[in-house]
Amino acid sequence: MNFDFSDEQKQLREALRRFMSKEVTRSLVRMAIDDAGAGQAAWRALGEMGASTMMLPENCGGHGLGALELCLLAEEAGRVLAPLPWLATLGLSAQALLISADEAAQQLWLPRIAAGEASTFAAPLDGQTGELPCFDGQRLTGCSSLVLDGHTATFAVVLARDAHGGECLVVCDLDASVSRTALPVHDAVLPCSRLDFYGTAATRLSCDAGRVLLGVRERAAVFSAFEQLGAADGALAMAVAYARERRAFGRPIGAYQGIKHKLADVYTLNEMARVHCYYAAWALAADAPELGCAAAAARIAATDALSYAAQENIQTHGGMGYTWDMDCQLFYKHARASAVLLGGRHLWSEALVRSLEQTAGE
Amino acid sequence: MDFKDSTPEAAFRAKCRAWLEANAERKQRVDELYGRGLGQAEMVEASRAWQACKAHAGFGAITWDKALGGLGGTPMQEMIYREEEGQFLVPRNAFAVSLGMVIPALAAHGSDAQRARFVEPALYGRELWCQLLSEPDAGSDLGMVRTRAERCTDGRDGWLLKGQKVWTTYAQFADFGMVLARTDPDKPKFDGLTCFYVDMHAAGVEVRPIRQASGEAEFNEVFLNEVFVPDTQRIGEVCAGWKVTMTALMSERLSIGGVIPPGLWQRGLALMREAPGFDGAPAIEDGRMRERLAELYMNTQGLWLMQARALTALGRGEAPGPELSVAKIVGARTLQDFAYLAFDLKGQQSMVTSELLGDSWSNVEDLWFGAAGMRIAGGTDEIVKNSVGERVLGLPGEPRTDKGIPFRELS
Ligand SMILES: Cc1cc2nc3c(=O)[nH]c(=O)nc-3n(C[C@H](O)[C@H](O)[C@H](O)COP(=O)(O)OP(=O)(O)OC[C@H]3O[C@@H](n4cnc5c(N)ncnc54)[C@H](O)[C@@H]3O)c2cc1C
Question: Where are the domains of chain B?
Fold first, then answer.
């Protein structure tokens, strides 16, 4: 057995962590609250480190970095709440193209991702049905109501309704025929836009849209779980640092079991989430049949971990934690947005139990 | 045991309802909010006007003695009024601190002149108060207040206040503030404190709003830069400040109710009926949701019942049981869980703010942030639990290093 990342992967993680703590930091997400383009320079720099080629086949610009590396990127991005389009680009739209197995489309679009362009996936990701734009075989008309990083993406894979009323996936450049409206959101880490298509030229992916959507959600669950895990660690680190420093009744507050046990509980949830995340990363990289269970379990554990870490980080900071200027609020907001992006916790525990039943039945 | 209004209670309820029908608009939905889009200053103005309106009708301070201008009513009547008011669109109450904490403490410990001057204007919404207790280094450990009050040496009969307060709710709108300050640093920490009131517009008082997690600014930093207060602005004896402060904080704890907004489990149920669950069924058909609804009911109803016990005790002239001290913890946690539930049910759409999602969502946002603040304000969860362990259960106290030691020797 070997349940760990390789030495090269650990080195990559170190490099990513250094990059995030120097070039990104949590000040970037504060800038992103008012300026949707705040992350662009950092995204380019990350691309130069090879991040934008992760999971791409070599004939589309890939360099052999795979799913495990992308998971590490996610974790390090989460730690500093990086407002970068890695999830929309690599975790969603690239995955849609990969799962579709439409090679012509892959050759056309994936090299643009490898070259550093941001893209997105316009589809309801929370398992619920939403309004879809219509595709007449050549052009796209209508609206995708909530699109992650819709403002910075240059192209998108879009879930649409075809002339026969069925669902299909199409790819299109987000050119002048698309009107983008930034939506007011709480969490600047996951900015969303509404996209209105006015006869936008698009090509159909040859694939089963429903199957691809499910596959994308499952993989995104793993990446998002790693991101939540990183954020939960980040929130815990903040709380621990404060608990060492802040004094009440003549002692650091971390000396009191009310705080000490609380932070040990946060740590426990984070560590449980970590092993589920790692397991899911393995299942994804190995294309193992366990992926269904593992992705859902990672998703649930990481959602719970971040939710608790964020809420207790505020609590540990007392009045300070309730201010705009402390970063506690950034974690608190990201905890909720990341908990619902792919659908609420109950959807994933249902998915988990269904996978368990299937596994047991075989 | 029964939960029906007694004949006088029913009569009082009818009276409240009739008055509210004539003076306010009934809510169309339980989560409807008064004055959508109003700024904070406007909301405080609206609260002043509503307080005046209530006071003129005799509902301004139901449990206060008649001598103070109150109705001389029971806590039960107070709750009946609040239950009824909860069904109407009224401004968010800016007078909770003024009437629930400061004025009761001033009435108990202040001079006749102070009572004569301040009780009525607060009751009628003309003067808003804030409470200047917490400091950057004195929150849970409030006894560590460093703001100094020094006797004037220039012949004036009064004091100079120097220091910084923080987290002061509504200081930017308040007319007066009650200040806890250190008058004698040679005494142990709780024994050298004295209470004063300051005119928030006096020279040397500087208020800086603090932006909160939600983006609004309800609380403030308040700098007291050599603010002169005549000795007549002292509340209670010199070095009796801790006692005055405790009266204020205990009045808050006794001002029962208002923790849980009305109709919360009904709202949870409505959300579950609207939201899609699995395979085309509504969320309410999912066992996980049914479990969460059960919990929501248990907590909200449990709090209501706890309050009913306390009201029964108070109605008999007895003290309410110590269990009431956990109500704030349960309340805050219930509200936080409710907000999380609402997010889960709304799915991806809930990444967007109420600017787009409308009124009922802004209510969820308020609870989401409000609950996190409630777990801290007025004694944190941890401090409340310590106090339950020590005062209620009689467990040994935490090691204390400050007993009997002069304040100036403490770090
Ligand atoms: C929304 C809001 C409104 C407020 N309004 C007012 C107001 O109008 N006027 C006013 O004076 N103040 C106000 N406050 C301040 C409030 O009373 C303090 O924030 C609170 O008492 C905690 O103090 P602190 O912020 O200094 O936190 P700290 O005391 O520094 O506490 C930090 C953490 O340490 C924990 N801790 C401390 N001591 C112990 C211990 N012995 N055992 C275990 N854990 C411990 C706390 O529980 C907390 O989790 C308000 C606060 C909020 C959030």
Answer: 7-94, 129-244, 257-391
Residue B136 exposed, middle or buried by CB count within 10 Å (0-12, 13-18, 19+): middle
The Cα of B112 is separated from the nearest Cα of chain A by a number of Å equal to: 36
Question: For residue A261, is pLDDT > 80?
Answer: yes
Interface check B27 vs A, CB under 8 A:
no
d(CA B295, CA B337): 10
Q: What is the rounded distance in angstroms from the CA atom of residue B344 to the CA atom of residue B351?
A: 10
Specify the CATH superfamily of domain B257-391. Butyryl-CoA Dehydrogenase, subunit A, domain 3 (1.20.140.10)
The residues pairing with A142 across neighbouring beta strands, listed in sequence order, are A197
Q: Which chain B residues are Cβ-neighbours of A263 within 8 angstroms?
A: none
> Would you call A81 helix, strand, or coil by DSSP?
coil
Q: What is the CATH number of domain B129-244?
A: 2.40.110.10
Q: How far is CA B91 from CA B25, B175, B212, B262, in A?
A: 11, 19, 20, 15
Nearest to A350 among B278, B343, B410 (CB): B278
B257 pLDDT higher than 60: no
pLDDT of residue B189: 96
Q: Residue B238 carries which DSSP code?
A: T
Contacts of B141 in chain A (CB under 8 A): 248-249
Q: What is the ipTM of this complex?
A: 0.96
Q: Of A238, A245, A253, A312, which is best to mutate to test ligand 1, by the most ligand atoms within 8 angstroms of its C-beta?
A: A253
CA end-to-end span of chain A: 24
In this model, does residue B190 exceed pLDDT 80? yes
Q: What's the mean per-residue pLDDT of chain A? A: 96
The burial class, CB within 10 Å (0-12 / 13-18 / 19+), for B395 is exposed
What dihedral angle (degrees, nearest 10) is formed by the CA atoms of B78, B79, B85, B90?
A: 70
How far is it, in rounded angstroms, from Cα B61 to Cα B51? 9
Q: Compute the nearest-CA separation of A321 from chain B (Å).
A: 8
Any CB–CB contact under 8 A between B394 and chain A?
no
- Ligand 1 pocket, residue B6 CB under 6 Å: no
Is A210-361 CATH 2.40.50.140?
no
Please report the atom of ligand 1 found closest to the CA of residue B137. Answer: 26
Q: How far is B262 from chain A (nearest CA, A)?
A: 24
- For chain A, the domains span 210-361
| pTM to 2 decimal places | 0.97
Q: Which of residues 262-321 of B touch A (CB under 8 A)?
A: 276-278, 283, 286, 288-289
pLDDT beyond 80 at B2? yes
List the single best residue of B348, B368, B395 to mutate versus A (max A Cβ within 10 A). Answer: B348
Read off the pLDDT of residues B106-161 as tens digits, 9 standing for 90 and up: 999 999 999 999 999 999 999 999 999 999 999 999 999 999 999 999 999 999 99
Given a cut of 80, whether residue B252 has pLDDT beyond it is no
